[in-house]
Fold:
Amino acid sequence: MSFRQAVQGAPAIRPYLREGLGAIRKADRKRLRCPRSRQISGSVNLDDALRVSCRQDPRWDYAIGLRTGQRGEMVLWVEVHPASSLHVDDVLAKLRWLRMWLAGHAPELGRMPRRFHWVATGGIAFARGSPQARRIAQHGVSFPVKLLELTA
Structure:
């Protein structure tokens, strides 16, 4: 199943599907780099899409569809957030929410191959070998980066 088809199967976010990186806020777009822009199959701003229906929930920021050649497509789940040890619980709460939301509202999107990325809004205030880094890795979230390379 393609990213576009999976998003189309989720009524709450369907209207927020954009071509390329069109759903990414301008301020956040500078934190992403895509050497092969034709690989991007679309994007969704989940935070905006679910702002009303999930007002009190810790919403994840973005879904980006990425063509991966023979393997089809995958979803890059991107959270743009401060990166200090104080924010680890916030990001993990957003990840728990995302997984539950996908299971209940967008199962096709939830079944696609995926990666969870944390993009830092400023400096990164914990080290790669730290307990915080190990904790996020155990949950499948990449170590925070200032600039995320969008590749398969």
The CA atoms of residues 83 and 124 lie 5 Å apart.
